[in-house]
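Q: What would this chain look like folded?
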Amino acid sequence: MSAVQPATAPPLALPLRLNLSVMMFLQFGVWGAWFVVFFPYLRGLNFTGEQAGALIGNMALGAIFSTIFAGYIADRLLASEKLMAVCHLAGAGLLYLIAQTQDPGQYWTLFALTFVYALLYNPTLVLANSITFEHVPDGQRDFPGIRVLGTLGWIAAGFSIDALFAGDGKTAAGSNGPLLLAAGLSAVLGVYSFFLPHTPPKGEVKGIPFVRALALFKDFSFAAFFIVSLAITVVLAFYYTVTSDFLEKQCGVKNIGSTMLIGQVCETVFLPLLPLFLVRFGMKWVLALGMFCWGLRYFLFANAGPEGMGFALAIAGVALHGFCFDFFFAAGFIHCDNKAPKDIRASAQALFSFLTYGVGMWLGSLICGMMVDKYTDPATKAVNWSEFWMVPSIGVIVCLGVFLLVFRDRSGRIVEPVSEPAAVPPGA
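A: My prediction, written as structure tokens:
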């Protein structure tokens, strides 16, 4: 008798691909339209550095407090596409209010507005992923080709704000236009969400999805993956927080926004290739490659300068974003979908976002700020960028070594008994 061959997933239908791709394009277009210029925008309004940092950090705090509950709602109570619509429509109104709040004396009002917005936006990152994984025939094969449209949305938003709001010697950060553009895109996506594939909650699943997602930590290898992901995201925050300042002060870059988009362009190149790497090398080595690129990026930054080879190293470090993000975070979402029981997929995705975009980014922002102070010369106010960047570079390499020692990519999903914690009695 011949061996049974594994079933091949059917091809992804073009209408479904287009529908989900537009969702991803708008999802990250909203974020990219305002986030990268928000810090200098606030500083231009005379908010202090500490205030601006705290307002930026609210995006991570929002991920900490909201993504798990969004996963619970999507798994148990409300269709995912309807929850997407509510979050983005309400978010559009909040972005408009944020754009109108420009007085440093209104700091606490702006703090509240940005925090509530973060509570609404962060769950949509989880929902966009879970909707995609729910409807595509093969998540490992189909997700990267859809997710890459999110990167294109970020790129399009970056070029749009330069084209619309920069000029006459001013940058886009000198206007509230990016916030208003983000509000408009959020409203469009809110309406569009009603036309996404219907993704109903799973109903009465066994146990509480959030608790069951935490129970996945009983699998040692999966727990190691989550803990390393948390550590890597701490150093990810360094890139988003200070790279623009580093490129300007250390490397003499003037067009910061366009220069940093080099990373997103490279991301669009490598993300569609991710399935090929996963098939050829397996999940463990793809994740390891992504981690190595984080360490290499910061090593290049530590040796960067304003001209010649030093400048080339800085640009190469920015370009490595394609490998860093695609081969660790995009692959990480696929790993979660591959391992989590089907009825708690959204909560597992939310848990991954909670630890990375939430706790990791928040801790990273705090640590990064303290390190900038540590490596700043009190007399000249200049940062010793070489020593600064070597710290996260070494940290990543240490994490990579731990990951290679403890991670095992076993086939199949994580199933009972880890899906139900022992403290919950049968039938609860």
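The radius of gyration is 21 Å.
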